[in-house]
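Homework help board

Subject: predicted structure for assignment chain

Our instructor gave us this sequence and asked us to write out the predicted structure in token form, then describe one feature. I got the tokens but I'm not sure how to describe them. Can anyone check?
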Amino acid sequence: MATVTRFAPSPTGHLHLGHAYSALFAESQGTRFLVRIEDIDTGRCRPNFGQAILDDLAWLGLAWETPVRRQSAHMDDYASALSALAERDLLYPCFCTRKDIQAEINAAGHAPHGPDGPIYPGICRNLPSAERDKRIAIGTPHALRLKMDKAIAATGPLVWHDAEAGPQQARPAIFGDVVLARKDTPTSYHLAVTVDDYLQGVTLVTRGRDLFEASHVHRLLQALLGYTSPAYNHHKLLTDTEGKRLAKRDQTQTLQSLRAVGFTPAEVRSLAGW
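My token output:
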């Protein structure tokens, strides 16, 4: 059976050495290698960065199957997944702004924290249906949140496997009622990557350790949507001389900047630890 891996960057800037490592790692682990452009964030993503990503990967010597999947062209797939969850009464509209949520947390004096920060305090979870319908009818901006407790009850205990960390008991509750869509972005990272990996037949998800905890939510969504679960391998993160994770804002580390001063693909691979 073929091992299908993918490298899935967002076109919000140029690739850096950390991306090079991640792409090379993914390619090395599979017998089929895919590239996906995760461009659901229309406010930050730019088409020119998407093309630059492909140019950099080709310059590094990577080859991938075509066509390249671009998330922005597949919103119907994510809408179908949301509909399936809504039919099971697993979603609710949340009308809270960030200011509303922070005010609620301040009033409570504390809030449990998850991987993404303070856990949503549930302000809109039990709004009467008439109030929800009224707000939606007048166009009040809202997100769609997962009813985490009900979702976990529907699936029961779940496990997933990481190549380095071993078997993992899924703990999606650490995220609380996670957002799966917003009015301006009709999907979320968690939902889109879960749907994409399934539809593309990815059998091994490779990505940085900074996304390890996200796999708990993805395993839950897989079970709710009837998807098979891939294997995982969360790799190390490259850091700078001060031990900070490489970021797109660090222009001196972009592949384009290294190319511009004369580095060869082999030299960049070496710098990326490959």
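Reply (TA_rk): Your tokens look well-formed. For the description, you could write something like this. The radius of gyration is 20 Å. That's the kind of observation they're looking for.
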